[in-house]
Automatic annotation (TrEMBL), chain A:
It comes from Labedella phragmitis. The chain crosses the membrane at residues 12-32, 38-55, 62-83, 103-127, 240-259. This is Energy-coupling factor transporter transmembrane protein EcfT. GO terms for cellular component: plasma membrane. It is found in: Membrane.
Automatic annotation (TrEMBL), chain B:
Pfam families: ABC_cobalt. This is Uncharacterized protein. The chain crosses the membrane at residues 21-43, 63-82, 89-106, 135-155, 167-189. InterPro entries: ABC_thiamin-permease_prd. Keywords: Membrane, Transmembrane, Transmembrane helix.
Length: 261, 211
């Protein structure tokens, strides 16, 4: 959300976080109910175009999206394809036969659909996910959706706890190792390690949270019905324009595909 | 584990003087932290539990529900510790969001699951007017969360599967919710209270007698 003469990193950053979340919901619904690969593929492409035109991505993210995403879709297609029920797919063409096992082209298409749907959902979520900061999201939820600010800001504080939890968990595991417990391998041992770590982890987290709450109370957090913001996150005309354009594009894609069938 | 279960149940109904359904700041922060912690548990369970789920489902389709309970823990923990309206829903929801943010194979749909599972547990605590927090209520809350999950998954895909599958899935998810979420969650809260970490909450004051 930089203005004041600083070059903007892309139009997606200037939009209200709620707009970016709301406009992809119809597309997500279309992806969820679709039963063939074309609609997810087209909406995946739309989301990719939106992200690439709307923001300047770091090189690492670009590589991840252009290489890892197709590879992930391919692996997912094979993985899902192997597990689909052969009775429910088109068995006209056999792709591969090993002994009694037949892999049908239809199975792969079903697998591709499933993995494209996941990829499209992920990409649509990234339209807001890549270009929204947590604090701005909380601000706009508080300002526009009338979520009580006490809940919004506390949830925000909690997400900053995540790195601390990792640190705590490491400490607990080290303490266990020093005392000679654990060290075995395998899923059962891993469950055992979790069971041993969970009570100290939760107890430590609750103590930490108590201190945070005390600090917030000491600064009179929650004493007043409203609070001032560092900056407001308004809904502007460009939000309406983006919403209309994106909704029209995704709607047109879905309608065109359904009609052309 | 210093207190017997009967003393926990008895004192759960006294203390009406300081029993308030209003959220204090500490309640909100603890709910958020519990949510994040259960999110980490979910994330851990996403590999092991899903493996178990798939294995059980391969043995008998529908039996996979037996592994679901751990994913319902958030609602039970939130309700038992915070004891305020909305706590179960909030903790389970934050847990689901964290699990989705760290990254799992279900992506954003985890959040919808979190909402319905939290609502299931929340309704059970509400049915007891946020007054009873014994092991039976905990187990019922786990079952409520399981039923919520079952209804959601029924309408998002399982509707295409057979009635036998869905009944088996319902049965196993109910058992798993009662044991892995309800009973386990209740014992977890007792163990936490024994560490003294919950002394600012009614549940901690009940479990530890002042000397």
């Amino acid at each position: 959300m930089s203005s004041l003469g600083v070059p903007r990193p892309g139009y997606l950053h200037g939009l209200n976080p709620l707009t970016k979340i709301a406009v992809v919901i119809p597309a997500m619904a279309a992806v969820i109910v679709s039963r063939e690969p074309v609609i997810p593929l087209a909406l995946l492409a739309l989301a990719l175009v939106t992200v690439f035109t709307g923001t300047r991505l770091p090189a690492r993210t670009v590589v991840l999206l252009l290489v890892a995403l197709p590879v992930g879709v391919a692996i997912g297609a094979i993985g899902f394809g192997l597990w689909t029920d052969p009775a429910r797919v088109d068995r006209a063409m056999v792709l591969l036969q090993v002994g009694d096992y037949r892999l049908y082209v239809g199975s792969l298409v079903a697998g591709l659909t499933a993995s494209l749907r996941l990829a499209a959902l992920l990409m649509l979520a990234l339209v807001s996910g890549l270009t929204t900061s947590g604090p701005d999201f909380v601000r706009s939820v508080v300002q526009h959706l009338r979520v009580p600010y006490r809940i919004g800001y506390t949830a925000l504080a909690a997400f900053r706890f995540i790195p601390r939890f990792r640190h705590d968990l490491d400490l607990i595991r080290q303490a266990h190792r020093v005392r000679g417990t654990g060290g075995r391998r395998g899923p059962l041992a891993a469950i055992g390690r979790l069971a041993g770590a969970i009570v100290p982890l939760l107890a430590g987290a609750i103590r930490h949270a108590e201190r945070v709450a005390l600090a917030m109370d000491a600064r009179a957090f929650g004493a007043h019905p409203t609070r001032t913001e560092r900056h407001s996150v308004p809904l502007r005309r460009r939000d309406a324009v983006f919403a209309v354009v994106f909704l029209t594009a995704s709607g047109a894609i879905v309608v065109a595909i359904v009609v052309s069938r | 584990m210093h207190a017997t279960s009967s003393s926990v149940d008895r004192s759960a109904r006294v203390d009406s003087s300081d029993r308030s359904l209003r959220w204090r700041v500490v309640d909100i922060v603890i709910a958020a932290v519990l949510g994040v912690a259960t999110g980490l548990i979910f994330w851990f369970w996403n590999t092991i539990g899903y493996l178990w789920f798939e294995t059980a489902d391969a043995v008998t389709p529908g039996f996979g529900g037996i592994a679901v309970g751990i994913w319902l823990l958030g609602g039970v923990l939130g309700g038992l510790i915070i004891r305020k309206p909305g706590a179960a829903l909030l903790v389970e929801l934050i847990g689901a969001i964290v699990s989705a943010l760290i990254g799992n194979i279900w992506g954003p749909t985890t959040i919808y699951s979190g909402i319905v599972q939290g609502l299931g547990a929340e309704l059970v605590f509400a049915a007891f007017f946020y007054r009873r927090f014994g092991i039976v209520v905990a187990a019922l809350a786990g079952i409520g969360a399981g039923v919520g999950a079952w209804i959601f998954e029924f309408f998002t895909g399982n509707i295409e599967k057979s009635a036998v599958f869905n009944l088996l899935y319902l049965g196993s998810i109910v058992v798993s919710g009662a044991l892995l979420a309800g009973v386990l969650g209740w014992f977890l809260v007792r163990a936490l209270a024994a560490t003294g970490a919950l002394s600012r909450f009614a549940v901690g004051r009940e479990a530890r007698r002042e000397v």
